[in-house]
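I hope you will forgive my troubling you with a question about protein structure. The record follows directly beneath this note:
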Amino acid sequence: MTGDIIEKDSPKDEAAARGAVAAVDPRLLVREEGLKGYLLEFWRKLRGGDLGSLPVVVGLAAIWAVFQWRDDAFLSPKNLSDLSILIVGTGLISVGVVFVLLLGEIDLSVGSLSGLAAAIVAVLSVNHGVPEWLAVLAALGAGAVLGALHGVFFAKIGVPAFVVTLAGLLAWEGLKQQVLGTTGSISMDEDGFVASLTSHYFSQVAAAYGAAGLAVAGYFLAQFLDARRRRAAGIPFRPMADILVRTGVLAVLLLAAAWKLNEYMGLPLALVIFVVVLVLFDFVLRRTPYGRKVLALGGNVEAARRAGINVDLVRISVFALSGLMAACGGLIIASRITSAAQSAGTGTLLMEAIAAAVIGGTSLFGGRGSVWSALLGMLVIGSIASGMALLGIATSVQNMITGGVLLAAVVIDSVSRRTQRSAGRG
């Protein structure tokens, strides 16, 4: 009858079970300890290699301090307003690059696609009399389709993304030259739709402050609803004091930016477009199943495949998105100079778009990053360019400095990943 004997817990085990306390998430303990807890948690993350956006924020603050010290016009309302428009074109391209990097891949065609999009709009609207808005839709559609074509070759046929997009870089550069024809350059209507993307300002004082207030309110509401949802689910949530402090810091920064912009010509339309795109794609990446699939592929392709994710479809869609954003960026760049030329999409544009994503914190190894990397990285690159121009320093020096910043970002990323693996978190 030994098989029917059921072992009973000893009195010692029963006492231990009664005295057991459910495991508490360390983040809750940190918040209960107040400021001391946050400082200890911050130090723990640094030691574990979880640096987040800290390096780029510190670097950006240092860059602004140095240039302001050398020339007090750097933080003037006009220069900051010009900087806010300068970063938008390449920044939009960089948003698409972020998604590709999250897969652990690269897209070398975005520069050529941006120039081709500008050429399509110019030829259709100027040479053939097509309404500008329709020409813009055609250019955006072309960017998405050609980007998806890269994705098909990569996902379905197995050609490395580096090779596919390198071929695209050459092919779409040639197509752009073919579209523009022998003229080499086509001027756009300076009062047209495309030109207004970077020339229009919301000059009313209430516009900039209203946009800042709306952003702050939206951030608070999103954090509050997220905390309430997590609390209802019985998982760790951000306390109200924490939300209020974060919202207060954001409010100070945005209201200061609004004040500076109003000191010049007001809120630029280009900046509004950029921020709206960032918010939209940040939501897609962090709050939708599609975004989680992109991150999953970047973390481990085989694990994602076994989890039922359509790997090929996600890859194709990401490259289509990259092509679409390249076209968007190309239109903004064309808007600034109100023309499409043979030189559009060439030079350092490709490298700056990739560098912005990496400098801003997106990992070259895939699976880690944020669309806000495009903003942070472009602020660094744009600030260097703006400061160098004010000081009269040659572009060659600017390129060397930007290259050094990019190398530093990659080194920090590599060291961070190694540290996290050593700490058992990578």
